[in-house]
Structure formats: C-alpha cells, structure tokens
Amino acid sequence: MLTHFIGGEPVTAGTAFPVHDPMTGAVIRQVGEADPEVVDRAVRAAREAARDWAALPVAERAGWLRRLAEGIEERFDDLVAAEIADTGKPLDQTRTLDIPRGIANFRAFAEIAAHRPDEAFHLSGVLSYTVRRPLGVVAVIVPWNLPFLLMTWKLAPALVAGNTVVVKPSEHTPGSAAVFAEICAAAGLPPGVVNIIYGHGSAGQLLVEHPWVDAVTFTGSTRTGSAIMRAVADRVKPVSFELGGKNAALVFEDCDLERAVEGCVRSVFTNGGQVCLCTERLYVQRPIFEEFGERLAARAQEVVPQPMISAEHREKVLSYYALARSEGAKVLAGGGTPSFGDQRDSGYFVDPTVVTGLSEWSRFNREEIFGPVCHVTPFDTESEAIDLANNSDYGLAAAIWTGGLDRAHRVAQRLEAGLVWVNTWYLRDLRTPFGGLRLSGIGREGGTQSLDFYSEPTTITIKMEQPDA
Ligand code: NDP
C-alpha cells in the first residue's frame, strides 16, 4: 500500500482505496486514505519545520531546489513509469514534457528567487523598503491531468519562498508524488519541509480547514475552488486558484491553414483534451470554414485516442457527446467510443470528436467538458470573432491563427483571457504570469508572481532627520 510521507518518514495509515490504470481499468495500486489524524499529523510536521526552513538564507533554499532537481533527474525513469501507470499518457509526452518540466520548475524558481531584488522607495528624507516573509504552511492540492508538472510548479516557489508544504495529490494519480517523497528523503531534505498525504473524498477539505494551514494553492474544478473558498473564509486564508476554462481559438482567413489545422489538432486533443488550456470552442472565418472543418475532422480521425482519467470522467465526457446530439449538433468526427480489440476496450477511452451547428448559448458551448472535443462555429468579422470568444463565464486561454501582424496584436489585446497565444499554443516561459479571469481562477502564478503569492511583504519606513543648517 502506498504510504503517506510525513515528517520525512513513510506513514501507513487509513482505509485503502484503489488506483486504476486508465488504459485497461485494472487496479494498479492501493493507497491509504488520510483520516483527520493523518492530516493533523502532516500539518503539525510542516508547522514544526517551518521556522528553521524560513530562517535559511534564500540561497540555501535555492540550493535545496537544485538538489531536488538532480534527484528528479536520477529517478527520471521511475517518475516516467509512475506517471504513465496512473494517467495512461504516451511515453514520449511524459519523457519530453511532464518530468522535464518538473526539473525545470525547480531550477527556474531557484534562479528567480536567488536573484530577485528587494524593493526600496526613497522620497524627501523618507526611506521605505520591503522585506518578504513566507506564509507558513501551504496546502498544495494538485489535479490528475498533469500531476508531476503541476505539483512541482507549486512546490518549487512555495519552498524557495520559505514555506513548508502539505501536498494532496489527486486520488487518481498519487504515483509520481510517492516517488518524489523518496527523492526528498534521499536528498536529506529537512523532515517536515515537504509532506505528502493521499485522500479520496475528505482529506482535501480537512487539510484546507486545518487552523495551522496558512494558505491554499489549488488547480482543479471551479466547483471545488468555490468549496475551498467557503472552507477558508472564516480565517481569510490566501488562495491561488487555477480552475480551468472553455478556451476559444480564432482562425482568420489570412492564416497559414495547414499550420492552423495542426495547431488546433494539438490544442484540442493533447492529453485527451484534459489540459485546462485546451481549446473547446473554435471560431473560423467563413471563407475557410468548410475546408477547415473538413481538414480538422479528417485529422481528428487520425489522432490516437488517449484514455480519460477515470470511468466517471469518461462518463462525463460521453454525456456531453450525447448532449451535443440532443441539442441538435452535427457531428463531423467521432462522437462515440473507439474499439481496439484488446485490453484497452476495458479502459476509459472516448473518440476524438468535432461537432458544429450549436448555439453559443448551448450548454455544450458554455460548460467545461475536459475531453478531446471541440465545437466549430463560423464568423464573418474580426469584432464578431472577439465578441464570440469573450462570451464565456471563463477566461483562461485563447489562441489566434492569423498572418496579419496588426490583427494579431489588436485581437490579442481585446481577448478577455489570462493567456493569449498567436500562431502557437501551450508555449510557456516560466517567468510569465499564469492564470485566468472569472470562473478560471484567482491570482497568477509564474515567475515573481508565484513568489509574491507564497510570501507576504512587510514595509519598513525610516524617517531620516535632516541636520540643522
Ligand atoms: P476537482 O477539481 O473537483 O478536485 C478534486 C481534488 O480536490 C481532490 O484532491 C480532492 O481531495 C480535493 N477536494 C475536493 N473537495 C475539496 C474541498 N471542499 N476542500 C479542499 N479540497 C477538496 O477534481 P475532479 O477530479 O473531480 O475533476 C472535476 C472536473 O474538474 C473535471 O471534469 C475538469 O472539468 C476539472 N478539472 C480541471 C483541471 C484544471 O487543470 N483546471 C484539472 C482537473 C480537473 P479529497 O477528495 O481527498 O478531498
């Protein structure tokens, strides 16, 4: 049974729950569920370690981040195997994106924190400067779609800013976090700086409500984000939320059509559409609408399906396929489930799917589906396209496909989204702000924005007496 990692030690506790291989549905591991006592023990361990960890010079904490990056490199193959077992991701994607990004997160935040200047303000004999102190114990709740990438994206800045953490991975994907616990232990990281607990149904709420948890960072559904806000409201704990989206792509007639089709194939179908940044609404200028739709549908049929994370999530995605039909959609590709003739037939697969013909106000076009599916809508003018893209309760990401330089800037600046790509998608500089508007979340992480969230400034002001003339 997979054990919790508390105060530097493996802890076996809690009722076991199973983790399934999404490729086949088979049970691959049993995990102990953190009960109130385990959650309390983890938070206490983090609290006990907090003072000494915060007292280290930032250069030393940055050194720890580099050592953890080396530890990840040493256990690279184990992390790849754990991530693939839990998620069913392709080997190539896991080797080139998920695990390398974990290494990059530790290295990048070590550099950013170590070289960050403090602020000072000088005005008429008054000097003010700010010092930053850590928040204390941070609860890190990580989703199942990019488990290692997103865990390290939050952990690295939280640690280098001087916080200790209690991590709660998704119940579907504890494997890479368990390997990371071993990496922390092998590196000799001070006990209690990183604690990892597993749970399924109650551990998350117990963790965020714990009075010694000072802040919460969460990536996942808007519904759970709201529940966390309610749970921490009484103690006004800071929260950083990245809560998904209903992302639009705008394809203009002056685009490089081949590049736009391939870009949209990536942005719709990567990771089976289970990335918060994936495109679910495509708007295509009318002169190229027919051809674009045909080419995208043809490519969708060539995409190798990736499993959904769980049987429940597969049912959710299929329910939207059924909804599209009942709302009157025309299905251009997919719409059902693939058949492989092997053990994958008991896995959690759905067809890569393209539909058209629905209203902007249909549930299908307004709700996050989180599967390999998009709706394609024609538009005539640039301002119409912008209005269509902005007509959403979410505001995380958007992509523009155009050959016009002026149009690219003009449209990008009017799109109500936290991230806008032009003629590309998913390209990230770790120093840039990341996050979304409206139901897509609160706050920004990335670069110094992460360090700002994981610390509190204190302003110190000194009045300098002037000598008598
Ligand atoms: P959720 O987003 O609902 O998050 C589940 C996680 O949150 C678990 O770790 C759970 O732990 C914890 N949690 C649940 N309730 C609370 C609470 N009240 N307080 C604190 N923690 C809590 O994940 P689902 O798997 O249910 O996904 C549902 C939908 O979310 C998906 O279909 C997709 O649309 C979206 N999603 C978005 C992602 C993104 O990247 N933005 C990523 C993944 C999903 P525990 O059960 O132990 O309490």
From TrEMBL:
Pfam family name, one: Aldedh
UniProt key word Oxidoreductase: yes
SUPFAM superfamilies: ALDH-like
Transmembrane in keyword set: no
InterPro entries (UniProt xref): Ald_DH/histidinol_DH, Ald_DH_C, Ald_DH_CS_CYS, Ald_DH_CS_GLU, Ald_DH_N, Aldehyde_DH_dom
Enzyme Commission code(s) on record: 1.2.1.32
Primary enzyme class: oxidoreductase
Listed name of the protein: 2-aminomuconic 6-semialdehyde dehydrogenase
Organism of derivation: Nonomuraea coxensis DSM 45129
Top-level taxonomy: Bacteria, Bacillati, Actinomycetota, Actinomycetes, Streptosporangiales
Gene behind the chain: amnC2
